[in-house]
Amino acid sequence: MTAAQPLHAVLGSGPAGTALARELVRRGHPVRLVDRSGSGPALEGVERYAADVATPEGARAAVAGGAVVYHCVNVGYHLQVEVMPKIQEAVLAAAEAEGARLVVLDTLYPYGETRGAVMTEDSPWNATTRKGRMRAELDARYLAAHREGRLPVVLGRSADFVGPGVLNSTLGGAVFPAALTGQPVPALGDIDLPHSYTYIEDVAAGLATLGEHPDADGRVWHLPTAPARTTREILAIVEQRTGRPIDLTVVAEPRPFGPFDETFMAEYAEMFYQHTEPQILDSSAIEKVYGLTATPLETALDATLAWYGEFLAARP
């Protein structure tokens, strides 16, 4: 690596990490994409690397030589409270030892129930759930590490994902295949409440921008997110795009349905408030400061439907 081309290490090869790796390559950065297997489709300009970043030695190997480290690792719902703090400890220590900046992909969980208030970066952290408190505690430690001068840290918060490759979202693998094939489409909670979704390519653009701007460090930013729409409005757009009536099943309370099995719903029940009150994210700060623009929801849905069409066609 040359001084002009510092390595960007992306931890986690899920939809966000993969989209981010592609975006960083597009911007001219050398990129390492890390997960436990190091396998997956070849991505032009991306070095795939196998490491378990929940361990100190795995995290050190993953970030070796990296100038900017992006933490996009997540784990199953039933493992989060136990495992995410271990990953944080290992990644913080490794990035600090490497002298790297750390960009963290974050959720809205620390805010807790908002009673429909618009979420800005100044909103209070009022989480009362296990996973919400855990995320808030992690974030407090990230920001403390920055304040203490251990390493530069910046957090990018996203609403629920939507987009190509996004399967495990309430607007993901349970919705689009069913909408394209005439199967029952589940919709959680009150479908007439506005709910923000962040397009996965906007997640990538936002994180890459934070990774390129050290002046962003030391705070939380909301990643570019289109204006909130109701679930009913979103499904109406999907219905119009597919030309097929949607067979809608409203899941008004946390119970197993289709891909939302009993194990998932038992863990998700405490977070179900996200579907019984408006979830409205304001991302104007990052848009104004760094000139970013959220992708219109219709454009995001078109790209998502196209990807799912190809995904279904490739299945046996």
TrEMBL record:
GO terms for molecular function: aldehyde dehydrogenase (NAD+) activity. Coiled coil: none annotated. Residues 12-218 form the NAD-dependent epimerase/dehydratase domain. It comes from the Bacteria. Gene3D superfamilies: NAD(P)-binding Rossmann-like Domain. Signal peptide: none annotated. GO terms for cellular component: cytoplasm. PANTHER family: NAD(P)-BINDING DOMAIN-CONTAINING PROTEIN-RELATED (PTHR48079:SF6), PROTEIN YEEZ (PTHR48079). This is NAD-dependent epimerase/dehydratase.
